[in-house]
């Protein structure tokens, strides 16, 4: 069937096909947002936006997601590099283990974390080091557990795509191993790093299942934006739920554009 | 690619969709609060055996179920586990006023992990230092609102509030928190304790309960199959249906419910105290 794609005409067809796919998908998401718009009661939206509960949830969601994203990227860079550059017995097993959080549903992860904090080791940590259960650090931990695997997966494929010979050349030119990593491999991984930051942060903001299971749904304490949406639906307050969904969408769009601009610019040479 | 190769999957798909649509007419879809889950599942199965009408049950928080029906503009029966949400559904015009039937009564109780490690015997024990308590989020979960009311009426809200370590987003979560031993006690319905190997029920003193709740059902205005829907509701309150509910530990008559709380209101509304949020932080 690829025969018809040959020649200048075929090129146009191919181009048109890919752009059509893009347009259709964009239209799909655009129409979802439009349908939300038609359901939005603007009085409720403004009232929700300036209410203490939602302002708190906005602050809580953005700070916890930022902390969780930073921690998971800081950990994922060395982990992904280690998996990408080393071969060791049982590597497949370790690799699969790190992928588990992506497959397991977030509610199950949250429940597993609750169980962990019931064990002697877990409760010792919870009572003496940092209080995670039903507390704000629990939100960060839940988000981290869900997103770290995503960061590792993205960064591993980025490092896989960088030829180790660049580093070897840098080392023959006198770089130490860390110097070679920081001045060659990491800058080459820029695109993957940006993608990882964006995706993990976005996923952390939207995380609900693990967060609500480990940290609870206490208003003005552990109520994040997704929790606020769920609570509004649970109190049959559809207008407020849609208003909060809209708040989440707006924050997500602003933040994602900002991250793209900031990181994209800093690394551009 | 030949034309037939292209058309075949589409034809199959259309047949499948068409087949589904035809099948739908003999079925009833119910949106139910999760407090009625075990009994309703058996009741629906029995009902299908006897009438051939298939009842699809959706479970979740009573408010969440109402939201889904409102957003999806569908659902034949609404079966919330609390009167508050039924009156909300009436106010929104989802169900006709006064069309609801009471299916079973719910008694608020204390649930503790099996073995009762903190030796909790009374409501006042929840105020003891070192006891951790969870309640439903009062804004969203009906039993959460009942919990605040019970504590307030018994002058224990100020003392118990510091022990309330978390608010749960639905009633099923409360039972799980006890089963996982994440808290020492929760205030929930007596039927929330599904697995008595992991959870123990502590009944309150009869005079400590200001209000009882009930599970009720009504046919909605979205109903495609009003006759079958009404038939299922009638089945739930028939002797046969009520036997199923009793078998699963539900209380089906008012006089029986009264034994747990002789002076209590049944249903009605309770306004949360204005400052309760600052107490629960």
Q: What's the β-strand tally of chain A?
A: 0
Q: How many distinct folded domains of chain A?
A: 2
Low-confidence stretches of chain A: none
Q: Greatest chain-chain interface?
A: A-B, 29 and 32 residues
**CATH fourth-tier homologous superfamily of the largest domain in chain B:** Periplasmic binding protein-like II
How far the N terminus sits from the C terminus of chain B, by CA atoms, comes to: 65 Å
User: So what's the overall shape of chain A?
Assistant: globular
How many domain units of chain B?
A: 2
Number of beta strands of chain B: 11
The description of the largest β-sheet of chain A is: none
Highest-level CATH class of the largest domain in chain A: Mainly Alpha
Shape, principal axes of CA atoms of chain B: globular
Question: What would the CATH topology of the largest domain in chain B be?
Answer: D-Maltodextrin-Binding Protein, domain 2
Biggest sheet features of chain B: 6 strands, mixed
Which residue ranges of chain B are poorly predicted, with pLDDT under 50 across at least 5 consecutive positions?
10-24
Q: Quote the average pLDDT of chain A.
A: 89
Helix and strand content put the structural class of chain B at alpha/beta
């Amino acid at each position: 069937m690829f025969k018809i794609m040959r020649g200048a005409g075929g090129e146009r067809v191919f181009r048109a096909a890919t752009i059509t796919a893009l347009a259709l998908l964009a239209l799909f998401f655009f129409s979802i947002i439009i349908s939300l718009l038609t359901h939005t009661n603007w009085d409720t939206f403004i009232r929700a936006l300036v209410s203490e509960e939602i302002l708190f949830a906005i602050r809580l969601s953005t700070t916890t997601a930022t902390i969780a994203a930073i921690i998971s990227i800081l950990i994922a860079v060395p982990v992904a590099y280690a998996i990408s550059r080393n071969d060791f017995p049982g590597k497949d097993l370790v690799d699969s283990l790190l992928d588990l959080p992506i497959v397991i549903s977030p509610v199950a992860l949250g429940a597993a974390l609750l169980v962990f904090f019931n064990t002697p080791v877990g409760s010792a940590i919870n009572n003496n080091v940092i209080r995670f259960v039903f507390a704000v650090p629990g939100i960060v931990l839940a988000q981290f557990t869900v997103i770290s695997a995503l960061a590792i997966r993205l960064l591993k494929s980025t490092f896989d795509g960088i030829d180790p010979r660049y580093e070897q050349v840098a080392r023959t030119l006198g770089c130490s191993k860390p110097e070679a990593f920081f001045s060659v491999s990491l800058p080459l991984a820029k695109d993957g790093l940006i993608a990882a930051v964006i995706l993990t942060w976005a996923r952390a903001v939207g995380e609900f299942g693990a967060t609500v299971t480990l940290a609870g749904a206490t208003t003005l304490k552990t109520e994040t934006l997704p929790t606020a949406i769920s609570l509004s639906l649970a109190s049959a307050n559809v207008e407020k739920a849609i208003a909060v969904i809209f708040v989440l969408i707006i924050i997500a769009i602003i933040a994602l554009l900002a991250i793209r601009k900031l990181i994209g610019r800093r690394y551009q040479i | 690619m030949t034309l037939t190769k292209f058309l075949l999957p589409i034809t199959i798909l259309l047949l499948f969709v068409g087949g589904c649509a035809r099948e739908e007419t003999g079925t009833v879809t119910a949106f139910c609060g999760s407090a009625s889950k075990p009994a309703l599942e058996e009741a629906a199965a029995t009902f299908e055996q006897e009438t051939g009408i298939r009842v699809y049950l959706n479970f979740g928080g009573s408010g969440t179920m109402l939201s889904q029906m409102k957003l999806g503009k569908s659902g034949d029966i609404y079966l919330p586990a609390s009167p508050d949400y039924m009156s909300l559904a009436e106010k929104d015009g989802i169900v006709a006023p006064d069309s609801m039937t009471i299916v079973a009564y719910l008694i608020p109780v204390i649930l503790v992990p099996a073995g009762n490690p903190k030796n909790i015997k009374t409501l006042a024990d929840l105020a003891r230092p070192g006891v951790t308590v969870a309640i439903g989020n009062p804004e969203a979960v009906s039993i959460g609102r009942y919990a605040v009311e019970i504590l307030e009426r018994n002058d224990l809200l100020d003392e118990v509030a510091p022990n309330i370590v978390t608010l749960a987003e639905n009633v099923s979560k409360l039972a799980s928190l006890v089963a996982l031993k994440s808290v020492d006690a929760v205030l929930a319905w007596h039927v929330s304790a599904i697995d008595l190997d992991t959870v123990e029920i502590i009944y309150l003193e009869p005079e400590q309960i200001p209000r009882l709740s009930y599970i009720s059902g009504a046919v909605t205005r979205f109903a495609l199959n009003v006759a079958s829907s009404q038939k299922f509701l009638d089945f739930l309150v028939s002797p046969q249906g009520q036997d199923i509910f009793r078998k699963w530990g539900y209380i089906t008559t008012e006089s029986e419910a009264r034994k747990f709380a002789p002076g209590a209101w049944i249903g009605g509304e309770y306004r949360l105290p204005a400052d309760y949020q600052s107490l629960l932080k």
